[in-house]
Design goal:
121 residues, mainly beta, Lipocalin, 8-stranded antiparallel β-barrel
């Protein structure tokens, strides 16, 4: 039984060793977002408090609030519809190099999204 435990412990250490990316590196920069159910890409530029996202040649500005290293909330700065004023919660589910996977949803909604974000700058 101990050998199985040691095997899994060694496997975890080896899998973490090659990933030199700190989760905090995703708080600022330029990113491409790919949703699991879509072929389209959005581009986002993010600083410590604002995210400007371009999707289908439309720019939107969001206030970003980090709840933890793996969770953040986006709120549209100038909402035009009721849904635009609802917070959008993002939970980072995995990190590898300059990429993270996520699950996201609107507050109080069953609508869920999954996708991948790649830091390009």
């Amino acid at each position: 039984m101990k050998s199985v435990l040691y095997f899994f412990l060694a496997l975890m250490l080896i899998s973490c060793k090659g990933n030199n990316t700190s989760i905090t590196e995703f708080r600022t920069g330029t990113f491409e977002t790919y949703l699991d159910d879509s072929d389209e890409i959005s581009i986002a530029e993010r600083n410590d408090s604002i995210q400007i996202e371009t999707y289908n040649n439309i720019k939107d500005t969001f206030a970003i609030r980090w709840k933890s290293n793996f969770e953040y909330e986006l709120i549209k700065v100038n909402p035009k519809k009721g849904l635009d004023s609802v917070p959008f919660y993002v939970k980072i589910t995995g990190v590898k190099n300059n990429t993270y996977t996520f699950k996201a949803n609107y507050k109080g909604s069953d609508f869920k999204q999954k996708g991948k974000v790649i830091k390009i700058k």
